[in-house]
Design a protein that fits this description.
single chain; about 280 residues; alpha/beta; Rossmann fold; 2 domains; 9-stranded mixed sheet; 11 strands; elongated
Length: about 280
Amino acid sequence: MDIRELAREEWPVQLAEIPQLPKRLWIRGSLPPAGTKFLTVVGSRAMTRYGEEACRKLISGLAGYPISIVSGLALGIDTCAHEAALAAGIHTLALPGSGLDDTVLYPRSNRRFALEILEKGGGMLSEYAPDRASRVHYFPERNRLMVGLADAVLVIEAGPKSGTLITARLAGEYNRDLLCVPHRMGDSHGFASHLFIRLGAALVSDPIHILEALGIAPRGPIVSGEAPQDLEDAEREIWRLLDEPKTRDEILRAAPHGAGEALTALAALELRGLAKEEFGAWRRV
């Protein structure tokens, strides 16, 4: 697919807000339609099973909404984000740390996958000349464009030495909403998420949280109405009680396991994105 230079009037409008504008931009494939929201997804190259599941669940729940998934074509979370977008029929835009020609596209192991992104209607964007091979300093430069494009930045997982930390800090500097997926206590892969949640980033455990950050009204329930098979007994009882919205007092009076266990189960359902409190009543999501 042909590579062409983008005319300045074709640039996504968000880029005009960042310092150190690129001098030129090349594109291969296509940008999404006007009015589409950009969600930049970042995380570790050493992706965990939990990180992969979280990434796929969150992105699959955005199917059908005017959103483009932006990431860096790297191994790990980047590739997972692009794959999840394609599987859900969502536009995706890759920003490799290199030019866009097949001979230099980085990483080499993802060159075939990059063609799949193009074949399915996505695009690739770069400020480097098409035949420019990757350099170490290109990656932080590329990351500023990923954040600059974004309406929100989603951190899936990253350790204490990950470059994702720099990208997340840029979100604050560029006044972009920063969204983070929580992890288990003590899990080093959750270092970045937990750090930035403590500093004020939004905790994300359900696709609806992303829609809220992007200012998109949900069409209806995102999560299936069937109870997951891995619920604990108390959680399953609370789930059954929420066949229609109930206040917390109504839930506690009806719960068979006692108030303390019911509150713990309710909190667990909320953390998993299966229940939420709205207008004074709890309901299934």
